[in-house]
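Obj.: predict assembly geometry.
Materials: sequence records (below).
Method: joint structure prediction, all chains together.
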Amino acid sequence: MPLGKDYAAQSCSLARTLELVGERWTLLIVRDAFYGVRRYNDFLVHLALPRAVLSARLRTLTENGVLETVRYQASPPRDEYQLTAKGRELWPAVHALAVWGEQHHGSEKGSRRDFLHAGCGTRLDQAGRCPACETGVPPEDVEMRPGPGADRAPADAVSRALLRPRMLLEPLPQPLNA
Amino acid sequence: MPLGKDYAAQSCSLARTLELVGERWTLLIVRDAFYGVRRYNDFLVHLALPRAVLSARLRTLTENGVLETVRYQASPPRDEYQLTAKGRELWPAVHALAVWGEQHHGSEKGSRRDFLHAGCGTRLDQAGRCPACETGVPPEDVEMRPGPGADRAPADAVSRALLRPRMLLEPLPQPLNA
DNA sequence: CCGCTGAATTCAATCACTGAACTCTTTGCT
DNA sequence: AGCAAAGAGTTCAGTGATTGAATTCAGCGG
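Observations (raw structure tokens):
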């Protein structure tokens, strides 16, 4: 629905996936959700996208069961957006795309962000598996830390909060200071 | 370049990947290339997209080293578009997205297309690995065959040609009859 | 009462996509 | 030679989506 017509070749499941998740900004929102971003304003600050687009994307992701809203305070009603189980299953795809980008368009200084199997400390391969343990690693067990190519002093508070090592899906500390 | 501005948060390799591969139609073109589609007209027939968009996408994919043009006849000069090594490395990402779509938006009749480890015949998991052999499977070793949910009598010749089991990256037979 | 925050919506301008028509070159047919 | 067809595009007007700025709105803090 979001993008006018549906893709032809709808006999392919990739086409139906891209209808939902293939619009501009959508996968970056999902990626941020894996990073622990949950609030409207944090997405806004981190991605620097127009508010209208963010609202629209959050709505269609929620309507399609990728995100769900969770009330975190009642009096001025405020909702967080969290990944559902269905959304968390996008991790292999998101990770594979990120790894491809790192390999082919990475900076010369090295990776910007590393994803490690928590507990064993090994970097994941493109398939999202731990080469040492020879198992797939769900996002809950992935530790993210800045790599040598990371920007050391980003302009926005969300990027700064993401600079310290953290587990995927772990919510950002609130409020965001420094 | 293709989409006006570059994504902010360019410290993420996913963003740079999506700049290249995240536009409408682009990943479907790449998927078709894995399926063996190589010619302008075959992409056009299979995807039913505007010619202007197809030309633009093929150009940027070629300029960025995902596809390369290969002359297949000289007299009226005709080029095929083939995946480069860099392009073939998108297979895990494309496959992961397709599997996600199959799981969450698949038809009730079952999968539309199955991807098997050729030689062992086991269906790949979401990470693109063969559960039986416990190895990753490169696209050259993947056999594609229609699943129970496939459309049995598609309207276009390319879809009909893709109905018989085939190896990924194997070029479509030319000319396309039936 | 006033200003602030978080979460939006509205609006004009811009940009991209769509679909149809057109171009150009070579080849096959008569 | 003349004509139609195929393959691979380009051009162009109309539509739809995205952008960035401004505005709204509710509740809270002092």
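Conclusions so far: The longest strand of chain A covers residues 67-73.
To do: check interface contacts against the pulldown list.
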